[in-house]
Design brief:
mainly alpha, 1 helix, about 0% strand, rod-shaped
Length: about 100
């Protein structure tokens, strides 16, 4: 179908290059927008990861401090236990000595 002299066809052909540029710019903008969204999501992920890592490190430090405190308390309890055993042994010896006198 010939379009000789058709003003709409002539206008369309004149605008075809402009429309192609606009379409390419739209695709480029959409790609840039998608990249920006992906970069934002990556930044949020890294921030959450860093926060979680910091929290885990603080928790590990707290647990290490608690372990040191527990070991100190355990050493004190073992020392108390040794003193109590010595006192019980001494008391038993005194009771055995008193019992031996009565017999």
């Amino acid at each position: 179908m010939p379009h000789y002299g058709n003003p709409a066809h002539t206008a369309m052909m004149g605008n075809a290059a402009g429309m192609a540029v606009i379409a390419a710019a739209g695709v480029g903008f959409a790609n840039a927008l998608g990249d920006a969204i992906a970069a934002s999501a990556r930044a949020r992920y890294e921030r959450r990861y860093d926060d979680a890592l910091s929290a885990a490190t603080r928790h590990a430090d707290d647990m290490e401090e608690l372990a040191h405190l527990a070991m100190t308390m355990l050493a004190e309890l073992e020392a108390d236990n040794a003193r109590l055993r010595a006192a019980c042994t001494q008391r038993q010896q005194a009771l055995n000595a008193l019992k031996g006198r009565r017999s």
